[in-house]
Amino acid sequence: MAHINIARRNVFLLALCQALFITGNTVFFSVAGLIGQSLAPSKVLTTLPFALMQLGNMLATIPASILMKRVGRRWGFMAGVFIGIGGASLGVGAIASRSFWALCGSTILLGIYSGFSGYYRFAAVEVAPKAWRSQAISLVISGGILTVLIGPPLASWSKDLFPGVIFGGSFVTMIVLMILTLGVLGLTHMPKIISTEQQETGRGLGVIIRQPVFIVAVTGSTLGFGAMILILTAALLEIIAQGYPFETAAIALQCNILGLFGTSFFTGRLITRFGVLKIMAAGAILALLCIAINLLTSNYWSYMIALAFLGVSWSFLYIGSTALLTEAYQPIEKAKTQAAHDFISEGLVTIPILLSGALFQTFGWAVVNWAALPMAAIVLVAVLWFQQQSTIDHQRLQ
User: Fold this and answer.
1) How far apart are CA 38 and CA 194, in angstroms?
2) Where are the alpha helices (DSSP H) in 168-299?
3) What is the value of pTM for the model shown?
4) pLDDT given at position 397
5) What's 393's domain CATH number?
6) Model confidence over 53-106: pLDDT tens digits?
7) In which domain, by residue range, is 278 found?
8) HSE value, Cβ hemisphere, 13 Å, CA-based, for 216
9) What 3-state DSSP class applies to 167?
10) Domains in the chain: how many in total?
11) Which value, in Å, is the radius of gyration of the alpha carbons in the chain?
C-alpha cells in the first residue's frame, strides 16, 4: 500500500509539472501568432517561430533521453527547465528589441525545453504499477486541465503587463511558471537508475522501429498532433481575421484545451475498458468531424465546437499512442525506443507547423482543413489495419 501511495504521489507531482509546462506553452501559443505577425519581415514567415520551436523539440528528444538515462529523470527534467528559462528570457529581449530573429532563437530554446518535458508521460509509466500505466499516462497529461482555468486568462492579462513592451509579460509569466516547476521537481522521487539500463543492450533500433506496433504508435501521435497543430494555429489567425477580438480567440483555445485535457482524465480508463485501438480510431474520427465542421460553416459556435472536438481527438490519439508504444519495447530498450518515437514524431510535425501560416496566408482557411484531412484519414486506416492484423494473429495462436 505504501508503494502505491508513493507512486500516486509521484504521478500527481508529474501531472503538476505537466500542468505548469502546458500553461506556459498556452500563454506563449495564445500570443505567438500575433507576435510573429508583428515582427516577421514577411507574412509567410508568421509561423516560422512555431516551426523552429518544433525543430528544437525534435533535436532535444534524443539528447534528453540519453541524459536522463545517465543522470535520472529528475535531473534531466531540471536541465530542460533551465534551458526553457533561457529561452523565455531571450524572448523578452526579442520583444523589447523588436527582433524577429531573436524571437526565433527564443523559440528554439523553448522547443528544447518542450523536448525534455515530453518525457513526463514516460516517467509516469516508470513510477506506476503495470496495471495502472494507462491511467498514469492519462493523469499526467490531464494535468494540463489547469491550463483551461488559468492559461488563456493569464495570456490575456500578461500580454499588457509591461506598458510599451506588449507581449513581453507573456515571456516573464513563462519564466515564473518554470521556476515553480523546479520547486515541484525537487519534491519528486524517481526510480533509481539501474546499471543494466545504462548499457546499450536489447534489440537493435532498426528491429524495434520496424514493428507494426511501433509504426502505428508513431503514426497516431505524429499525424494526430500534426492535424491539430495545422488547424489550431490557423484557426486562431482565422478568428482574428474574421473580426473577432483577441478574447474570442482565447476562448476558442480554451475550448480546445478543455477538450484535450478534460478528456484526458478519463482516456486511460476508456483505454482499459474498450482497448487502445478503439480509442485511437475514435480520435481519428473526431478529427475528421472537426474538419467537416470547419469546411461546412464558419461562425463563433462552429469554431468553439470544432476546436473542442480537435482537442478530444488529440487526447485519444496521443495517450493511446503512448500506451501502445509501451508494447513495442522491453525495459532495457526504453530509452532508445522513446527517443526514436519522439524524434520521428516531433520532426515530422515541424512540417505542418511551418506550412500552417503559409497555407492560411496564401490559400485561406478551407485549404488548411483540406490539408489536414488526409492526415486524420491515414491514422484511421492505420489503426483499423493494425486491429485487423492483431485479430488475425490472435486467432492463429488459438
Assistant:
1) 50
2) 168-185, 205-209, 212-241, 246-257, 263-274, 276-296
3) 0.75
4) 44
5) 1.20.1250.20
6) 878 888 898 899 889 888 888 999 999 999 999 999 998 888 888 888 888 899
7) 2-397
8) 26
9) coil
10) 1
11) 20
